[in-house]
């Protein structure tokens, strides 16, 4: 009897020792199964019809967006600016919406209101700066706008300070860490979305080509990276975007280089695109001219290497030793490199945000693409680069009526301003630009003399 009890106890101990191994084995197999299920299937390896349906939807919506893009461009400068501002607001709303959900769960007061208040304050500061800089001759002579232009930065600062004080006053015990995280998230959205999009607007004011070309390069890279990855992608590129492949990345880069040169060659033919904005109401059907034209758009002969010239002679049966190339075409190659190699990391950053908040897309406003943020994540970074590159290597600085007018208003006393008017009138009369007889008949000289006597008293 005792022997049987010992045998039964020994058997139970063996079963107990075996059970952890079995549970560990089952746990390991289930973990492997989950990893296999979670592992993304690359587009090129996906044999289902789903990828073709997605491609058809993406192609259709892409063509619609490109058509809308050209329509807005042709409508005029002001509509291009309005479109950028509208896209900025939509993207900001999508990004803030992500953080608003946990804010509601924790009953954080005024988060949404303060987010929009800081957006309005930031837009007021940035666009006010642009208006004052590019349209000084209009702002500085307007009696209503002049005080706002003169004290613009101080007004903007005080508006921001009011929002900051309101935020601090609404800090709630037990939620300090969460509220600080929300505050930082809002400012991250302002910096990466609103500030960067403002530079895109400045690109428009410098000439539509500096808005169209960078945007077109990103679009080309996005399309051909998707197409190359769709058909040939086999090697995953980065964990943040599991369906991005090395083949798509390289294919998009090569195609963007070629198309960037071609697109720029076409765009530089139109004054509407290359001239800085002088009239916000102008459109593609307006007669737009700019003199002097930026020399970057003027083609100059480039001497070909001897081996290239020999090859061209062999193909075309005539001597070709020089080719006309405008500097902007070479600048386009540099921008194409950035659009293909660096700008995609803006998309990877957006993917990291989505992974952090456990969402697939920022929204569902664009079928096949997700939200507006999912399509604009690379454009903001590209627009900022285009602005910095243009300011550093391309922009020419000329004295304008607006800059002289601002200098006169801000640095001369009223008496000196009247004296400047008198001297300018005398000069124009001596050069026979103004009719001396008409000036004498208008009594403008008496008016200026009276103003000088009043200012002297």
Describe the structure.
The protein has 457 residues and is mainly alpha-helical. Helix content is 74%, strand content 4%. It has 19 helices and 4 strands. The strands form 2 sheets. Strands 1-2 form a two-stranded antiparallel ribbon. A two-stranded antiparallel ribbon has the order 3-4. It is flat. Residues 16-37 have low confidence and may be disordered.
Brief synopsis:
The protein is mainly alpha-helical and 457 residues long. Helix content is 74%, strand content 4%.
Order of helices and strands: HHHHHHHHHEEHHEHEHHHHHHH
How does the overall form come out from the CA principal axes?
A: flat
Overall mean pLDDT score? Answer: 83
Q: End-to-end span in angstroms?
A: 131 Å
Strand adjacency order, main sheet = 1-2
User: From the alpha-carbon coordinates, what is the Rg to the nearest angstrom?
Assistant: 32 Å
Biggest beta sheet attributes: 2 strands, antiparallel
- Residue stretches low in confidence (pLDDT < 50, at least 5 long) are 16-37
Helical segment count: 19
Percent strand = under 5%
- SS elements, strand count: 4
Helix-residue proportion: over 70%
Helix/strand/pairing category: mainly alpha
Primary descriptors:
457 residues, mainly alpha, two-stranded antiparallel sheet, two-stranded antiparallel ribbon, lipid metabolism, transferase, lipid biosynthesis, EC 2.7.7.41
Layout of helices and strands, plus pairs?
Blueprint: H1 2-38, H2 50-75, H3 77-105, H4 111-134, H5 136-139, H6 145-150, H7 152-169, H8 176-206, H9 209-232, E1 236-238, E2 241-245, H10 246-267, H11 271-274, E3 300-303, H12 306-316, E4 322-325, H13 327-341, H14 344-357, H15 372-394, H16 401-411, H17 414-430, H18 436-442, H19 444-456
Antiparallel strand pairs: 1-2, 3-4
Helix pairs in contact: 2-3, 3-4, 3-8, 4-7, 4-8, 8-9, 8-15, 9-10, 9-13, 9-15, 10-13, 13-15, 14-15, 17-19
